[in-house]
Amino acid sequence: MLTLFGSPQKYCDGVNRRSFLKIGAFAFGATNLTLADIFRAEASQKQTSPKAVINIFLGGGPPHQDTFDLKPEAPSEIRGEFKPISTAVNGIQIGECFPEIAKRMNDYAIIRSIVGSTGGHDAIQCTTGKPPRANANIGGWPSMGSLLSKVLGPGDPSVPPFVGLAAKTAHLPWSDCGGPGFLGAPYAAFKPEGPDLANMKLSTINQQSLGDRKELLTSFDNLRREIDASGNIRGMDAASERALNVLTSSKLLDALDLSKEPESSRKRYGDGKPYQFQYDGAPTVNDQVLLARRLVEAGVRCVTLSFGRWDSHSKNFDLVRDHGRKLDQALSALTDDLKQRGMLNDVVVIAWGEMGRTPRINKEAGRDHWPQVCSAILAGGALRTGQVVGSTDRLGENAKDRPVTHSEVFATIYKAIGIDPDSTMVLDPTGRPTHIVESQVIRELV
């Protein structure tokens, strides 16, 4: 548990700075390291402009035939209930549940031919670009957020580079924000709930007496003033001072506080309620999409979240009407905000699930698992948007042309945020240099 001493005398007398900065699991999941240790390890890494990724996982696998790859000429038992609608880009049509995205199609790219899904109900391929158990003998392959933390470092010294927003789901793999793999605990995601959030609070203060968040932030500010006045901050090394910046800065807490967002903005995103078809999965967290924008604006490199439960074995069309319209609202608001703030070229947004759904509708008006092919929608990152990459056959069963792998999607995202996927490597636990991705970028997009 974090201990922050409020008196400069207590800090100066008999308490060394390493003890002062011990914070358990705060920020990156480290259990035996301090933030100062982590920051020293990162100090030699080149800092770049604050580019970022928002990775929206559609847990359960959305039906590609009812979202972004409709088959209006297929038999009724294949095409289902939805009609395609035209978009702002001539020749591109998408499902009727996405009218706002259709209006903004110039800002999006759709991939209709993603192949290679292993068919598991988990987020692993969407967070790592690798199949489950990849590099398991050395700790597993790191997720994108962990690799960005390692390669780029923080976009702002007072905020963690990787934030996982997904709250715990009954089916746990649907709320997996991506692990650090062989990079280790220092590069795990910060989760703004549970132990990580608790570690941001002053354990020496009775929380009941704080009353509200304003008093907590005042406590942080007073602590910084006391330390500065004592002159002891000048005695810290740069890494320790940066650790203190995280602990005493209100920037992260401000970013997590949606009450600071104008009501008109919150209304544009919506809150995703009422939650329907959730069962053992994630709710439709429109407010977390807004939170993701606030976090990348504050300097976070990668934000992951899980939006909805798309495992539509029954009532598929009712589910898509609910989830699709909410996703349409949140994604369109997000791209509008990023564009208005001049951030769209620096932030890549992707929404995708772990698989597609069966072309044939079952007797429960549902679609079952279909790992053979699925779709994704992307925006930002100065990608060549306003286009569709790849296609499926007449029934939406298989990729007809331009099959795209998860690894190629990852290479493309890395390229879009300024990382050369051909030359960038990290060291594995054996000391062996390892490329962060082993596929080529999607040339149509970059």
Automatic annotation (TrEMBL):
InterPro entries: Alkaline_phosphatase_core_sf, DUF1501, TAT_signal. The lineage of its organism: Bacteria, Pseudomonadati, Planctomycetota, Planctomycetia, Gemmatales. PANTHER family: BLL7424 PROTEIN (PTHR43737), DUF1501 DOMAIN-CONTAINING PROTEIN (PTHR43737:SF1). PROSITE patterns: TAT. This is DUF1501 domain-containing protein. Pfam families: DUF1501 (PF07394). Transmembrane segments: none annotated. SUPFAM superfamilies: Alkaline phosphatase-like (SSF53649). It comes from the Bacteria.
